[in-house]
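Archive maintenance. Older records in this collection stored only the sequence; we are now back-filling the structure field for every entry so that each record is complete. The fields below show one back-filled record exactly as it appears after the update. Entries are processed alphabetically, and Lipocalin-like protein is next in the queue.

ARCHIVE ENTRY
Title: Lipocalin-like protein
Organism field: Ichthyenterobacterium magnum
Length field: 258
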Amino acid sequence: MFVKTQIQFIMKKLFGLLTCLILLTAFTCEDEPLDSDFDISTDPNLSCEAALLNTANAALSFASATEDNYAALCAAYKVALQAQSLACGDEDGNIQTAIDALGDCTNDTVPNEGIVGTWLATSWISTEPVDINNDGEESTDLLAEFDCYDNETLVFNADNTGIMMSTSYADVEFEIETGTTDSYIYTVDCVEEVDNTNFTWTQVDNEITIIDEFDVESVWTLSGNQLSTVVPQGFIAFDSNDATVTVSQDLTFIYTRQ
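Back-filled structure field:
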């Protein structure tokens, strides 16, 4: 028998001001990337929901762009963002900022060897194992415990700018087993959402410093084809009734060059 309890969960994303602090919710997932010849709708009657889906698909495709299809996928992503702005509004100006960051969709700069390119989140390592997918096997790799977060990307440009792309988040519900204090059943629901954050970056040897559009700084370590950073107390769960912390772990984000 299981009894549901109110637990809050914090999952810190890449940058401090993007921390998710939600009651019974957290995180990100994705949709399948579109083809380079995908036709983004510019219908003025396009619903906000449809526009968000188009943008998510376009963002995923653009994140894996090659030298040959960069211009086409960039243009498709730009059109999708413009359609989203019309359908959903852009009160805080973030969509327009993302559009401006794409420029004229040319890719004729000489890459800064070592970091420039697209990096995909491949592991979120916790200090203690958990069993979020309820398969009876605990893991310290939280991404392996989810059916989402397959397309969290960082794109580094040669002009020392970049963009962090997320295409969804996950609602997470916890149930604690009766008679226990640390045995949980998790229910995860992936929800599509487009969340792009612009940043600037600098590199000194194998250390990459990122400053996002909110002036929040994070320091990363480059090792071969992997890029990583440690987020102190990136994984926190606590009882909302008495604020008792039940889980508090550091997280290591690992991204792999694509």
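Update note: The CA atoms of residues 2 and 134 lie 14 Å apart. Confidence is low (pLDDT under 50) at residues 1-38.
Entry marked complete.
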